[in-house]
Amino acid sequence: MKLYGDYHTHCHRSDGRQNEEEIINAARKRGLKEVAITDHGPLAAVIGVKDADEYLRLRDKLNIIAADYPDIEVLLGAEANIRDLQGTLDLPIEIIAELDILIAGLHPYTLPTSIKDGWALFAQNSLRHLGRGQQEKAINNNTKAIVETAYNNPQLDILSHPGLFFTVDIAEVARACVVNDVLFEINCAHEYPDISAIIEANRVGVDFIINSDAHFQETVGNLDYGVKLVEKLEIAPEQVANWHQGGGHKQWRKKKTNCIYS
Length: 262
Ligand SMILES: [Zn+2]
Ligand SMILES: [Zn+2]
Known about the structure:
Radius of gyration: 17 Å
Number of domains: 1
CATH class: Alpha Beta
Structural class: alpha/beta
CATH superfamily: Metal-dependent hydrolases
Bound molecules: zinc ion
Order of helices and strands: EHEHEHEHHEHEHEH
Largest sheet: 7 strands, parallel
Shape: globular
Helix content: 25-40%
Strand content: 5-15%
CATH architecture: Alpha-Beta Barrel
């Protein structure tokens, strides 16, 4: 299966080890028609952008250099961090409105919106090895946070690496993706989710997207892990948003302009 674009990469503005032009050139070398630069939201320690305005600075930069790369569409995105059980993201609505693509995921060391949520989500998750009861609590909380994220953020396009770092109930997460038109990511950098989770999500009927999550130019557009799995499982190409014949991000993006955030 050939893919149209890679919609999840990081540059040095968050924790990537590459600049914008290195990402663009690496994607061109792979023959992709589109690439998105999707740095981590600001409220995860170490990995996040310095502040939310960094996306506006990147937008300006991309506008300037776009003319140098007429053969590829370069998109501005973000991988926002989920902060609590209600699915609050670490990006203000004004910044989200400027993005072409919104990805969200759970990441360790994210600043929660309250101590209670910090305990329920991030601390509970680190207690999961203490036994079955604690583990079940962590799975319930992680699943709730992701499900609420899908319901409460109408502009969300992609859920990144579902279940990575934070174990979830895949079927419930997949159902929330289907209902809210959110793409279920197969993440090639982390080789996550694994085949059993992909089988389960497929059974629920999600649409997938295969992304590199590249932090280095060598791995931009390296989508082999996902391609091999969807081929092996005989998932219909129409169920993979970035399938080459799918026509690119204009065909699957959400970008609702009039949504209300509480
Ligand atoms: Zn991530
Ligand atoms: Zn990422």
